[in-house]
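In response to a reviewer's request, we include the raw inputs and outputs for one of the modeled complexes. The two entities were modeled together in a single run.
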Amino acid sequence: MDKQRKLLSAPYYLWMGLFVVVPVLLMLFQSFRDMDGSFTFLNLKGYFTSPVYLYMTGQSFLYAFLITAMTLFISYPAAYFLTKTKHKQLWLLVLILPTWINILLKAYAFIGILSQSGLVNQLLGVMGVGPQPLLFTRSSFLIVATYIEIPFMLLPLFNALDGIEGSLILASRDLGANEWQTFRSVVYPLSLSGVRSGIQAVFIPSLSLFMLTRLIAGNRVMTLGTAIEQHFLVTKNWGMGSVMGIVLIVIVFVVMGLTRKHQRGGIG
Amino acid sequence: MKKLTVLSFLIVLLASGLHFTKNLLQHTSGTAEPDIFHLYNWGDYIDPELLSRFEKETGYQVIYETFDSNEAMYTKVEQGGTGYDLVIPSEYMIARMIKEDLVLPLDHEKINGFENIDGAFMDLSFDRGNQYSIPYFWGTLGIAYNENMVKDAPMTWEDLFDSEYRNSILMIDGAREVLGIGLQATGHSLNSKDRNELDAAADKLTDLAPNIKALVADEIKMYMIQEEAGLAVTYSGEAADMIWENEDIHYILPEEGSNLWFDNMVIPYTVKNKEAAYAFINFMLVPEVAAQNADYIGYSTPNKAAMAYFAEETIEDEQFYPDQSTLEKLEVYEDLGQEFIGLYNDLFLKFKTLK
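The model returned the following structure tokens for the whole complex.
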């Protein structure tokens, strides 16, 4: 039995090794090489002494934080009320449906909605407000990114909230807690595991969103993804690009550490 | 255990199946069949009617593959195993491919119609004596504007800095293009390798930042046609497409000068069918063919003899076929070397964060 289990887990370890561990090690190795392939600390030094790169790192973090906060703010109540509806699996499916559509198509659809002659501006025109520049603004970037990430926050939240035993809530009410008290002392603590995985699922990809920064924000939002793309494709300075990749991984680890479960408990 | 045996058997079967498919694929794309011609070109960069005409006239069967950047093309050709007979890269990439022996010297004896090409587009710095390449199209970088959306039409790069155009310019997302504007507006060369000049250009560009609505790439064409913005810095062929769709748009070459680029035909070392490659070069040099292609694509043809087939207004359009004195002010990008490519890109990143 034990032997079989080992054999069955082999593909998993093989996969993790080949597609996670090895690439990260390669990137680490690359980040200590200069353009001629010899060992150097200059990439690292170049990164930490460049105000532009540090600014872009700050922006990456800031926007990922804002996107995560907004998705959480919208998804938590949505998931909560979803668990109370009659056909909750159906409604969940409807809300998850946009993930079936390619992200580029969604971005282009938003270009059509937000442009000068787009749907929103036509609506504003009917209301007597002239066309507003909506495309290429930071707020439209935040709105579109939030829209795209919502399903990834909603799903773990829904699973956590839906997994809470109904008897616990009944018991809480029996013992005299009102609805708000029940939510605060029973539902909310038990849903924290969902919040954690939701934050991880949204924050991490948001850090390296870079196509949207050009398509929707017209490069007004500058994140590290833009610099990484440039170093790998244009300047061929893979060392510098790798340093930035490593920085993003470090930020991811920090976020994972902060959102780790500290004690037993929670469902999911 | 039995399951495991079945599983291993399946994996072996799958692997051998993949191996077989791979061989099959290599067979179809790699072997030299005498009547097949592999053309590797930019997307939407030839009139498809001309391809079928070429097939009919010569009997070769054309296999047309496309790329979307010089860098992608370079990687694919360099790695080999492709069997392309003819490729159409831009000038700076041709210089690099010559240096790295990725292209073959041309046998000028086999080429008919050399005399049709305008002398101004021959014997240029990236390929002296046209030993390796034949001009296909050329174009410029300039300013497209919508006459209904700007009060005064821009004439120079300097005009773009005017506060009148606040938040209304769509800029092409390229380091050399943007730095080039700063360099030419301060009276320097597009290929400057002087740190002081580059710093001055980057400084100059800080004043341009408030006028920029967005830094985008291929989408510029769509936005200009839909009147999302009043001005754009873009390539001549893109501008030709915009004008075709929206008559209010015009294209100008800034008085300070601008970038001049070429896409030339070269025979890569992967060639399997040299005769077909020469036949294609000769076909594209026929004035009537070049004219039809230019009319379809919108970029400018280097074929002087083709001009006879154009409508009067096309040739007289100074913005797409500028006169000699304007042409002299245009500069071709040179390969800057790793260090300066890095510096240009760092300055460009800094400019982008000003937004």
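As requested, we also summarize the result in words. Strands of chain B lie at 36-42, 61-67, 86-87, 133-146, 169-172, 212-216, 231-235, 249-252, 260-266. Chain B is about 40% helix and 15% strand.
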